[in-house]
Automatic annotation (TrEMBL):
Keywords: Membrane, Transmembrane, Transmembrane helix. It comes from the Eukaryota. It comes from Mytilus coruscus (Sea mussel). GO terms for molecular function: glycosyltransferase activity. This is Uncharacterized protein. GO terms for cellular component: Golgi membrane. The chain crosses the membrane at residues 260-283, 542-560. One of its GO terms (biological process) is GPI anchor biosynthetic process.
Length: 660
């Protein structure tokens, strides 16, 4: 039989493989014909078997097979095969890819193979005869792996009768079949199907490699290939079949509905269990979404008054046990000066509130228990016009140093002489003027002791028990920051910000928090779904993500940001520093370096701005940073303000747990 090789006719002579000894005449005739043909073509007398009778086609049979073969390949209406040239792609629309190895594809790569139609005239095929070198690599793309149930590789191939070829099939560099010899060895082309494990496939590009095995004694003939995919039915398409066992393809409508109901039941159970628990937790938490649904204004005020009375009783009990020996002294210049600014309130309800006693007791307890600032001093700054009438402070003089704006002081404090008139004035147009000057006086006299930091506390603010520990932790953070940038210094750190303004709103930072919480919730439910149902459907994952995001956002909105922040108070590492807002001044930590500038600025603007707004204007004009710490390190207990005797603040702000 004549075949074309490099456009030169070459006679292919084959010896009988059953004859163990080669015929020297045949061998030399074959070699001679190859040399004169100008091309040494390797024909393996022991690798290729004699042409069997069932492979000899008449001319009519050959034409008929070629016509049928081409019709199947090129007929666009044919459902048996589907061909693609530019990109081999399995998707939910296509279920089969046919590859004729006599065509050129960008996604099919042949290595060390040869082509001939010797045993099948007009229908060439590939020869794989170099072990571990001869191979065919098919690259195909899967649009959505979740929609495919099974993937098969079909090979139209054959091997010899005795010295048959062995192949390895490798999927994405993982062997799935080693030394495979085929079902029959009668030299008849037949298609065999091999299952491709779905777990080895990936979304996007996949590679299947058919390689002649290293142990192959003969060659392997390969004509064409098919990659077929079985799609999921409707219920498995949406992920139900991945989560629950089914009985093959005989899934009834009832089974589909039951699995759909299981997913819905999971959503409903989480909704009906989690939200009631959240409501039960939040019903008595101020600033939660449901707090005012369970409590009226009168009950809230009564509750706040009751808590205040309990704190006052504890404060009196504690102060009765202290004396001057309990207060640590300082040597030289203290590292920290703690100043409580106080003035006698004229409101009748204030007479029973005892704010100063609660503040002094909590601050003193924090002060003596602290070991982080060993060299520190605590004082009360009494700015009342008639200090002798402020009996609560007068009683504390024996235990705690007191400095007085309008009287004698227990400490050797000084201030700028040019402000003596300002500090000696007793009558002001309004109480806000006096408030700012009082604040200046206490801050300047405390700074005269040369501390590194000054902690200014108003007389209606109670610190947490670990406040100094957290302050020290944040100061160390700022020191580390100052070594790498120029922004390590600061004017002050605001240690309290009104809870009513700490809730969720439309500020960029608050919206970002909501988005992050939603992403955490969605990712959590997707992870739970993967661990339990192991669904690989993107539709199901997206549904779980949306539900988780919605559920987590709903939970935190119900609890309220103020109460969410309380979870962060469990460790000093969870506290954060934010740029300081304008309001307010119940508790402020000042850097001693910038106190003179602050006092000079307040002296100039005390008539124009309130104290907190003047401080905020100062940092905006100078560009020196100031921070606010979250969560709050202080609780505000002053429901009745010293600036007004007619009204009280919202009682909801003054309901808190003072045991922290």
């Amino acid at each position: 039989m004549l075949v074309k090789w490099s456009n030169i006719p070459v006679l292919m002579l084959l010896s009988d493989p059953d004859d163990e000894s080669r015929n020297p005449k045949v061998y030399f005739v074959r070699l001679f014909l190859q040399i004169i043909g100008g091309k040494l073509y390797s024909v393996y007398s022991n690798d290729l078997d004699l042409f069997p009778n069932n492979m000899e086609f008449t001319e009519m049979e050959t034409k008929s097979r070629k016509r049928s073969f081409n019709e199947q390949r090129h007929d666009p209406s044919s459902t048996k095969y589907r061909r693609t040239y530019d990109s081999l792609c399995l998707s939910i629309q296509s279920s089969c890819i046919f590859l004729d190895f006599n065509q050129t594809y960008d996604n099919v790569c042949f290595k060390c193979t040869e082509t001939t139609d010797q045993y099948r005239p007009g229908m060439p095929y590939k020869l794989l005869h170099y072990p571990m070198r001869s191979s065919v690599e098919i690259i195909f793309s899967i649009i959505d792996l979740d929609f495919l149930q099974e993937i098969h590789l079909g090979l139209n191939s054959c091997t010899g009768q005795h010295y048959y070829g062995l192949i390895n099939i490798i999927v994405n560099k993982v062997p799935i079949l080693i030394d495979y010899a085929g079902l029959r060895h009668d030299m008849a082309f037949r298609e065999e199907s091999f299952s491709i494990p779905k777990h080895l496939c990936v979304h996007g590009e996949n590679k299947v490699k058919v390689q002649l095995s290293n142990n192959s004694p003969g060659i392997f003939w390969l004509s064409d290939a098919r990659i077929t995919a079985t799609r999921f039915s409707l219920n498995t398409k949406y992920g139900l079949g991945n989560c629950f066992k089914s009985n093959g393809h005989k899934k009834t409508t009832m089974a589909v509905l039951s699995k759909l109901l299981l997913h819905m039941l999971l959503f409903l159970l989480s909704f009906c269990i989690i939200l009631p628990v959240v409501v039960f937790y939040s019903w008595n938490k101020p600033f939660s979404m449901v707090f005012t649904l369970f409590h009226g204004d009168n009950s809230i005020k009564t509750w706040a008054d009751t808590l205040n009375n309990q704190r006052l009783a504890k404060a009196k009990q504690y102060l009765a046990t202290i004396n001057e020996t309990f207060l640590p002294g300082y040597i030289g210049e203290p590292e920290l000066a703690v100043v409580i600014v106080t003035v006698n309130r004229t409101n009748q309800d204030y007479d029973k509130s005892g704010y100063i006693l609660q503040t002094v007791a909590a601050t003193h307890k924090m002060f003596v228990q602290d070991k982080i600032f060993p060299n520190k001093i605590m004082m009360i700054c009494n700015v009342d016009v008639f200090p002798q009438n402020y009996t609560e402070v007068v009683k504390l003089k024996s235990s705690i140093p007191v400095i007085q704006r309008y009287g004698l002081s227990s400490l050797p404090i000084t201030f700028d002489f040019k402000r003596r008139v300002l500090y000696g004035t007793k009558i002001y147009p309004n109480s806000y003027y006096k408030e700012t000057v009082d604040y200046m006086y206490c801050l300047e006299t405390a700074h005269s002791l040369r501390p590194k930091y000054v902690l200014m506390i108003e007389d209606d603010s109670m610190p947490r028990s670990n406040a100094l520990e957290i302050i020290h932790h944040k100061l160390q953070y700022l020191k580390r920051k100052s070594t790498s940038t120029l922004h390590g210094e600061f004017v002050y750190i605001k240690l309290f910000y009104p809870p009513k303004w700490q809730g969720y709103g439309f500020e960029l930072s608050r919206v970002s928090e909501i988005i992050c919480i939603g992403c955490i919730g969605g990712s959590t439910l997707v992870a739970i779904n993967l661990m339990t149902c192991k669904s690989r459907s993107n539709f199901i994952r997206f549904a779980y993500f949306l539900y988780g995001a919605w559920l987590f956002v709903l939970v935190v909105l119900t609890i309220g940001r103020q109460n969410v922040l309380e979870f962060f108070s469990s460790s000093k590492h969870f506290y954060t520093l934010r740029p300081s807002p304008g309001c307010c001044t119940p508790a402020m930590l000042y850097s001693g370096k910038h106190i003179p500038q602050v006092i000079n600025f307040l002296e100039t603007h005390y008539k124009d701005l309130h104290t907190d707004l003047a401080l905020h204007t100062f940092i905006k004009q100078t560009g020196i940073p100031a921070y606010q710490i979250e969560p709050n390190l202080f609780h505000h207990i002053g429901m009745y303000t010293s600036l007004s005797s007619k009204t009280h603040k919202s009682a909801e702000e003054f309901i808190f747990d003072d045991s922290q």
